[in-house]
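Standup notes
- HV: blocked on the assembly model, inputs below
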Amino acid sequence: MAEKVEQNELPTCPWYRLCDVEKHRCCTSAWIVINNKVYDVTAFLAEHPGGEEILLEQAGCDCTKIFDSIGHSLDAHLVAEKYVIGELHPVSDLFILTCNRMEQQ
Ligand code: HEM
């Protein structure tokens, strides 16, 4: 019975929208999105083997394609897990924008 209640609980992982992520694009706060997960890589900037600059350039963005195209190792994927802070909200910013516009009409 207790197991059933647990299954029905809402996810505890915070949800962010791309517009939230876009606000974090500097060396004191750098967030990125990879495969719908949100990462705060601020503390990792100086440690990134590919360089701080290249990671900072991607801050505030969904960099799934570029991350995958570089062919990061399994180790890199494991390291990334340490910096997950949440997930991208399943309802996109574009959908919300469209709804807001429709409400205004
Ligand atoms: C949480 C995010 C990231 C983590 C944990 C991470 C980690 C790593 C690690 C461990 C390496 C060493 C090579 C390997 O093991 O694959 C690496 C290399 C590299 N990374 Fe990342 N990375 C991240 C995001 C990115 C992003 C967004 C870019 C793209 C702009 C990028 C570009 C590179 C490049 C160019 C290299 C050098 C590849 C080479 O020398 O062959 N990384 N990264």
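- HV (later): unblocked. The CA atoms of residues 22 and 58 lie 10 Å apart. Confidence is low (pLDDT under 50) at residues 1-5.
- Next: hand off to the docking folks.
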